[in-house]
Amino acid sequence: MATRFELVAEQAGYRAGGRWLVRDATLTLGPGQVIGLVGPNGAGKSTLARLLAGLLRPAGGSVCLLVEGRRVDGGQRARELAYVQQSIPEAPGFTAGALVLMGRYPHRGPFEPEGPEDRKAAARAMAWTGVLDLAGRRFDSLSGGERQRVLIARAFAQARCAVILDEPTASLDVRHQLELMARLRLLAGEGMGFVVVLHDLEMAARWCDRLLLLDRGEVAAAGPPREVLRPELLEQVYGLAARVDWQEAGCRIAFELPGLEAAGARGGRR
Ligand SMILES: Nc1ncnc2c1ncn2[C@@H]1O[C@H](COP(=O)(O)OP(=O)(O)OP(=O)(O)O)[C@@H](O)[C@H]1O
């Protein structure tokens, strides 16, 4: 049976450099959900993702992971929830397989070597992200997209309940983007939950149950994609005129930047 959990942010905020990078962010992630964080560059998506992941301590409000009704922290939190960062770290000397196995550390005692369960979980996660055949390769020798998929596999190997993914599709080709989002939905169907930072609003509309649209550190809108991806809101937040056509599975969004487009067209005709 799937684990009952809730990741709750209540008016969570974070300050740095004398200002609020995120203020009053409220959301609840539970089993079966995929929540998208969207918004322009610098809006506070990564900061909120790091607050949810427990990597930043809120300067206002709270962030709390409840499993079977009880608050979990420290080592247990690391067994239940994992985070995939936006930038791809250096990992000199490690193979892809060793890196994914690191996701299993929180599940073992100190100095305890990995066991068959750990290897099984790592192999399964690597199969999900299509990197099983890269297990023996040095991480540093992989392409950007391959590395991204290894890091996602590590999070899948680690977390029982929830994964926070910061722009996980940024380095992926179209096929791997779709496979990843479909995998999140599949795992959500089995009782996990995900928070995903995305720039691609059409992808967010298609795969997420709910969206938080961030603007200059504040939640400009939150709710089902149809309620959030409204032309007037998008124009307010991105400063672009938008046309949103809803279809059976998601939407098509056409943005317009009249000044620059006109200039581009003039340049093209020269
Ligand atoms: N440690 C810090 N000190 C001061 N300002 C910071 C710090 N970290 C981030 N910021 C600023 O906070 C704002 C939010 O950053 P954040 O990375 O959360 O944005 P984002 O929505 O994820 O952006 P992007 O889409 O570009 O990844 C930005 O203006 C950023 O420059």
From TrEMBL:
Q: Which UniProt keywords apply?
A: ATP-binding, Nucleotide-binding
InterPro entries from the xrefs? AAA+_ATPase, ABC_transporter-like_ATP-bd, ABC_transporter-like_CS, P-loop_NTPase
- Domain ABC transporter per the UniProt entry, residue ranges: 3-241
Q: Which GO terms describe its molecular function?
A: ATP binding
| KW Transmembrane (keyword) present | no
Under the heading Gene3D superfamilies, the entry gives: P-loop containing nucleotide triphosphate hydrolases
Q: Does the keyword ATP-binding apply?
A: yes
Q: What PANTHER family does the annotation carry? A: ABC TRANSPORTER ATP-BINDING PROTEIN, HEMIN IMPORT ATP-BINDING PROTEIN HMUV
What is the protein named?
Answer: ABC transporter ATP-binding protein
